[in-house]
């Protein structure tokens, strides 16, 4: 997600705290919210007393540092092969078939399109793809302003049936909650940006 | 049934599950002595009476107790036993079994160590059922039932079984491997009296669904059919005809290839089912078909168990509502349900006793369990995405705590989660002190209490202190020797203990071996337990079924010493490629009256006392 540049004219947003940060740091703070659950422990070997990095009192990993992905341990978690094999392809199927293909509509366009969200690594790529697909410009996202100044704004319907502005939540959360996309005219988007 | 038997100097008290009867055998019966003055019998009853009484005993434990009273009782018990349970196929040989029990109709046989389910045992390890079948064909030609778990079963064996046992009725294969659907075809073709075919979670080569069509047209005896875990399509016409003509069919669990539309037709044929495993639940019906399915479910007044439900979505779950009020066991462990969807369904299931779900339901879904299922006794929560740590989902301690407040009768839990606290576990067992099976898997190895950063010792301390009936325990998280001190101190009824990535020193394992008097199965992986710990259990292993230790600190010398000191134990070591010569990477120790096994593959070293 592109970092926000503070605009001089404050719109009345629900998040009123001023934040100074370099472009691109916005996402770190959002990840922090969910950091508590990302409590990764090093493998037991690294906890030995003699270990160079030995920290006998286990701590949360620093929220800024995402630990390197662990190698999978044989036979752990203890799940029967049958269940493992039948769930993995199924999850992929479930994602491909049900969750990750979403319809995209655009105000004024006669046809809907369908895209596979898992193809994109993050918001910038998704937005560029939408721009290409519908031959329009969406512009820059900012937390405070949304897509102010853009001709169009991407919105999505989430699991609760609410219409949200694309970019408000972390990408992973967006992936698991997005039901469909709708590109609306920029003028309508201002309403979304004002504490909706 | 409580039978209190007095025989001269000794008595045994046996617990079985039926009604109460008291028999007293009060020593030499004067009447008998008058009629049979030359009788040298110590028992006042003729054999036939004793055998008749003993034949009422069902539980293997009771029968073992009875057989130890005296020689007459041993013989009478041997002659009256019709079902034999062999928990470790290498603890005894088929010849020894046949010598002792001349009239066996039903055999249950378990093979590989449980960790083979998690790929920790080499594939060619053993546990081939064939040598057993060969002996049975001669000694028990009237064998009716065979239940196998973690055995290797080939197609040849299945065919051998099918043609050599004319009275064969019940085949149950659970977590077995080595066979294909061809073997099932042989069973279907030849077993004229088959009543049960239960094929669950096996490593089967699924060539085709044609086996189902092999049941002859005049075959009508089937009562249980479970092929839920097979993938290939079966001929639906053949299935429908089979279900129609088997009027006693009570359990039917079909595979994914059976569509909802076809399920409706099966239900119409078999409204008296008590257990149903659906096929695919993909929402693809027309309005009329949906209504017909609902009607069909409405006719099934006896359904108490439901499973399958692949690809079920919230849209179609309401079709199940007619049967939900009588459901006692609901297996949703292959269904990706969210919390609200589960909640809606559970509101209809007030009588639920057993529930299996995926962790996609989240803590919110488990709150719904607590709110709607006060009779719940068993809960299993499986991870939908066990290997992906980046995704933040699944269940936490909050979910299980919520269940414990609402389901006070809970006594069996299997719970996969990514975070847990000592306080939560203490609350859970305080609410549900009757746990007999407590299997907690914190998926990140060695993870501490995520709030306090302390080890999870106090959690399991609370479990063993509070749950005096605990029989089975699986521990996880960051654990020091203190956990094992607690277990040894309090878990006096514990029979099975599973440990992974835990403990600080030999002392931990020692405490368990010293304190858990009823321990039968101990399986340990990736723990810092070494020879001192292994050898501290020298005298205990003969009272246990087996010990498994892998990736611990046990050496070959330690194992050799154990084998030398305890000749009636089989001590087997499996080495990993590239490991140190002195390390005993995987150790499997078990008591046996059959001696070291002769079919061990090269990767399994049998250490003898020599």
Features of the shown structure:
heterodimer; A: 196 residues; alpha+beta; Ubiquitin-like (UB roll); five-stranded mixed β-sheet; disordered N terminus; B: 610 residues; alpha/beta; Monooxygenase; Leucine-rich repeat, LRR (right-handed beta-alpha superhelix); 21-stranded mixed β-sheet; two-stranded antiparallel ribbon; 19% strand; globular
Describe the 3D structure.
- The complex is a heterodimer of chains A (196) and B (610).
- In chain A, strands 2-1-5-3-4 form a 5-stranded mixed beta sheet.
- Chain A has helices at residues 26-35, 81-99, 123-134, 171-177, 186-193, and strands at 101-106, 113-116, 152-157, 163-165, 180-185.
- Chain A is α+β, with helices and mostly antiparallel strands and 196 residues long.
- By secondary structure, chain B is of the alpha/beta class.
- In chain B, the strands form 3 sheets. Chain B has a 21-stranded mixed beta sheet. A two-stranded antiparallel ribbon of chain B has the order 1-2. In chain B, strands 7-9 form a two-stranded parallel sheet.
- In chain B, helix 18 (481-490) links the parallel strand 19 (472-474) and strand 20 (496-500).
- The chains are: A alpha+beta (196), B alpha/beta (610).
- Chains A and B meet through helix 2 of A and loops of B.
What's the arrangement of secondary structure elements?
The complex is a heterodimer of chains A (196) and B (610).
Chain A: H1 26-35, H2 81-99, E1 101-106, E2 113-116, H3 123-134, E3 152-157, E4 163-165, H4 171-177, E5 180-185, H5 186-193
Parallel strand pairs in A: 1-5
Antiparallel strand pairs in A: 1-2, 3-4, 3-5
Chain B: E1 2-7, E2 10-15, H1 30-35, H2 47-54, H3 60-67, H4 71-80, E3 83-86, H5 94-100, E4 106-110, H6 130-139, E5 145-149, H7 155-164, E6 170-174, E7 177-180, H8 181-190, E8 196-200, E9 203-205, E10 224-226, H9 236-245, E11 251-253, H10 260-269, E12 275-277, H11 287-298, E13 305-307, H12 321-324, E14 329-331, H13 339-346, E15 354-358, H14 362-372, E16 378-382, H15 397-406, E17 412-417, H16 422-431, E18 437-442, H17 457-466, E19 472-474, H18 481-490, E20 496-500, H19 506-515, E21 521-525, H20 531-536, E22 546-550, H21 556-565, E23 569-574, E24 586-591, E25 604-607
């Amino acid at each position: 997600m592109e970092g926000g540049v503070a605009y001089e004219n404050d719109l009345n947003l629900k998040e009123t705290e001023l934040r100074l940060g370099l472009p691109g740091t916005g996402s770190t703070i959002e990840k922090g919210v969910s950091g508590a659950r990302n409590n990764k422990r090093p493998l037991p070997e690294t906890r030995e007393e003699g270990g160079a990095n030995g920290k006998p009192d286990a701590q949360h990993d620093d929220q800024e540092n995402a630990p390197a992905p662990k190698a999978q341990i044989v036979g752990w978690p203890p799940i029967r092969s049958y269940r493992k094999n039948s769930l993995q392809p199924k999850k992929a199927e479930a994602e491909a078939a049900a969750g990750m293909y979403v319809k995209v509509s655009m105000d004024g366009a006669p046809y809907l399109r369908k895209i596979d969200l898992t193809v994109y690594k993050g918001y910038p790529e998704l937005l560029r793809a939408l721009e290409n697909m519908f031959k329009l410009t969406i512009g820059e996202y900012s937390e405070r302003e949304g897509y102010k100044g853009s001709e169009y704004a991407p919105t999505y319907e989430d699991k609760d049936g609410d219409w949200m502005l694309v970019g408000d939540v972390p990408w992973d959360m967006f992936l698991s909650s997005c039901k469909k996309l709708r590109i609306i005219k920029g003028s309508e988007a201002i309403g979304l940006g004002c504490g909706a | 049934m409580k039978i209190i038997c007095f025989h001269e100097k000794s008595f045994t008290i046996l617990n079985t599950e039926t009604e109460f009867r008291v028999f007293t055998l009060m020593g030499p019966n004067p009447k008998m002595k008058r009629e049979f003055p030359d009788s040298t019998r110590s028992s006042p009853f003729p054999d036939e009476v004793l055998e008749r009484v003993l034949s009422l005993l069902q539980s293997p434990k009771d029968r073992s107790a009875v057989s130890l009273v005296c020689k007459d009782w041993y013989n009478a018990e041997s002659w009256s036993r019709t079902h034999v349970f062999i928990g470790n196929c290498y603890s005894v040989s088929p010849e020894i079994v046949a010598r002792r029990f001349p009239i066996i109709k039903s055999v249950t046989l378990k093979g590989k160590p449980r960790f083979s389910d998690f790929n920790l045992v080499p594939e060619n390890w053993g546990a081939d059922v064939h040598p057993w079948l060969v002996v049975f064909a001669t000694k028990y030609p009237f064998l009716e039932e065979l239940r196998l778990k973690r055995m290797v079963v080939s197609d040849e064996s299945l065919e051998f079984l099918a043609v050599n046992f004319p009275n064969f009725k019940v085949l149950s294969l659970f977590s077995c491997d080595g066979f294909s659907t061809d073997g099932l075809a042989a069973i279907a073709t030849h077993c004229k009296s088959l009543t049960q075919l239960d094929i669950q979670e096996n490593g089967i080569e699924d060539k085709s669904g044609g086996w189902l069509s092999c049941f002859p047209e005049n075959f009508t005896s089937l009562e249980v059919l479970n092929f839920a875990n097979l993938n290939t399509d079966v001929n639906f016409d053949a299935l429908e005809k089979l279900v129609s003509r088997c009027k006693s069919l009570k359990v039917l669990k079909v595979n994914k290839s059976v569509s909802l539309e076809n399920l409706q037709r099966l239900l119409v044929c078999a409204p008296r089912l008590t257990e149903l495993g659906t096929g695919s639940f993909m929402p693809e019906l027309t309005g009329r078909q949906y209504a017909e399915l609902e009607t069909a479910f409405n006719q099934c007044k006896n359904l108490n168990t439901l499973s399958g439900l692949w690809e079920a979505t919230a849209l179609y779950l309401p079709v199940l509502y007619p049967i939900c009020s009588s459901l006692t066991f609901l297996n949703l462990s292959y269904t990706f349900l969210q919390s609200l969807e589960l909640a809606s369904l559970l509101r209809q299931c007030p009588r639920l006793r057993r529930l299996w779900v995926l962790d996609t339901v989240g803590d919110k879904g488990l709150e719904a369990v607590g709110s709607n299922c006060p009779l719940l006794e068993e809960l299993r929560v499986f991870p939908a995405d066990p290997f992906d740590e980046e995704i933040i989902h699944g269940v936490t301690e909050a979910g299980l705590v919520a269940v414990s407040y609402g389901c006070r009768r809970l006594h069996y839990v299997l719970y996969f989660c990514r975070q847990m606290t000592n306080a939560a576990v203490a609350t859970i067992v305080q609410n549900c002190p009757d746990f007999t099976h407590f299997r907690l898997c914190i998926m990140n190895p060695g993870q501490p209490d995520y709030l306090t950063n302390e080890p999870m010792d106090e959690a399991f301390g609370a479990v063993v202190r509070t749950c005096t009936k605990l029989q089975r325990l699986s521990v996880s998280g960051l654990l020091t020797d203190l956990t094992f001190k607690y277990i040894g101190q309090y878990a006096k009824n514990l029979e099975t203990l599973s440990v992974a990535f835990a403990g600080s020193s030999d002392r931990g394992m020692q405490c368990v071996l010293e304190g858990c008097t009823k321990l039968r199965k101990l399986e340990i992986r990736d723990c810092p337990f070494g020879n001192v710990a292994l050898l501290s259990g020298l005298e205990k292993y003969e009272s246990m079924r087996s010990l498994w230790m892998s990736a611990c600190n046990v050496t070959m010398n330690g194992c050799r010493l154990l084998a030398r000191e305890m000749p009636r134990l089989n001590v087997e070591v499996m080495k990993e490629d590239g490991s140190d010569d002195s390390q005993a990477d995987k150790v499997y120790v078990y008591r046996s009256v059959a001696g070291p096994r002769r079919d061990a593959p090269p990767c399994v070293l049998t250490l003898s006392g020599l």
